[in-house]
Amino acid sequence: MKNNYQLKNKTRFSTHSIFSKLIGKKNKILDIGCNDGYLKDISDKSNNFYGIDYSLESLEIAKNKYKSVIQKNLNNLDDLTLPWENSFDVIIFGDILEHLLYPEKILNFYINNYLKKDGIVIISLPNVANFMIRINLLFGKFKYTDSGILDRTHLHLYTFKSALELIKKNTNLEVEEVYGGSTYLGFLIYLFPFLKGLFATNIIYVCRKK
Q1: Which of 110, 112, 35 is closest to 80 using CA atoms?
Q2: Which CATH superfamily is domain 15-209 in?
Q3: Residues 206, 167: Cα–Cα separation, whole Å
Q4: Phi and psi at residue 145, in whole multiples of 5°?
Q5: Extents of the domains making up the chain
Q6: Of the candidates 152, 85, 90, which has an alpha carbon nearest to the alpha carbon of residue 124?
Q7: Cβ-contact 62, 36 below 8 angstroms
Q8: 3-class DSSP state for residue 119?
Q9: Model pTM greater than 0.85?
Q10: Backbone angles phi, psi at 65, to 5 degrees
Q11: What number of helices (H) and strands (E) belong to the chain?
Q12: Whole-angstrom Cα distance, residue 89 to residue 30?
C-alpha cells in the first residue's frame, strides 16, 4: 500500500522540524501514529522511541529505528492498553487524531495512563482554515485528496480555535505553546505570528497536565 505521508523536513519551520526541536534530548517518547518512524531520524540520538501504528508495512520500517513498536487500531476502544509498563516524558499525537472516531477518548487514555507527571504532550492537526482551502471555497471547490489537509480519511476538521476546544473541553491538559507548521510559508508565521491561522498547514500545541 502506498504511504502518502513521508518526512517533511525541508525547512526549519516545517511541522517535522518543529517536532524535532520540541522533542528535546534524553527523553522516552511515545509516538502515536508513528508511521515509518521518521521522528527518530530527525531527533537527538539520545531519545528512545516507542511507536503505535495501524500499518504493518510502516511498522516493519519503524521497528528498526524505535526501541519497540506495536500495531493498534485506535478506533477499537477495547484494545488500547500497551505492553510496556513505561511512563513517557513525551507523548506525540502527530496528525493522527483527525483520523479517529473518538479523538478525545484516545487523548485521555494515553495521557492519563502513560504520561509522566511532568511530561509534555505534542499535538499536531491539519489546519482547515489554511488560505488555500479558503480560496478554493471562495470558488465553490471542496475536494478531498489522498493526503494533506483534506485527506479523504479525515473524520474531523480543525482550526486553531476548534483544536484548542478539543484540548480544553476534553482533557486535563494546559496549553503551554502554540506553533503553526508550514514547509514553505513558515518564515512568514515566524515573522508575523498572528498569520498562523491563515498560512499554517498544521496546528501544533504543546501541553502539560494541569
Answers
A1: 110
A2: Vaccinia Virus protein VP39 (3.40.50.150)
A3: 11
A4: -130, 180
A5: 15-209
A6: 90
A7: yes
A8: strand
A9: yes
A10: -115, -40
A11: 8, 7
A12: 8
H or E stretch at 40: helix 38-42
Q: Cell for 176?
A: 503551554
Strand order across the 202-209 sheet: 68-71, 48-53, 28-32, 88-94, 115-126, 202-209, 173-181
> What is the number of residues in the chain?
210
CB of 28 closer than 8 Å to CB of 50? yes
pLDDT tens for residues 63-93? 999 999 999 999 999 999 999 987 999 999 9
CA distance 55 to 71: 7
User: Could you report the per-residue pLDDT of 137-150, keeping only the tens digit for each?
Assistant: 999 999 998 888 99
Q: How far apart are CA 157 and CA 67, in angstroms?
A: 32
Q: Contact, 89 vs 22, CB < 8 A?
A: no
Burial class (CB in 10 A: 0-12, 13-18, 19+), 107: buried
Whole-angstrom distance, CA of residue 117 vs CA of residue 40: 23
Backbone φ, ψ for residue 29 (5° rounding): -120, 135
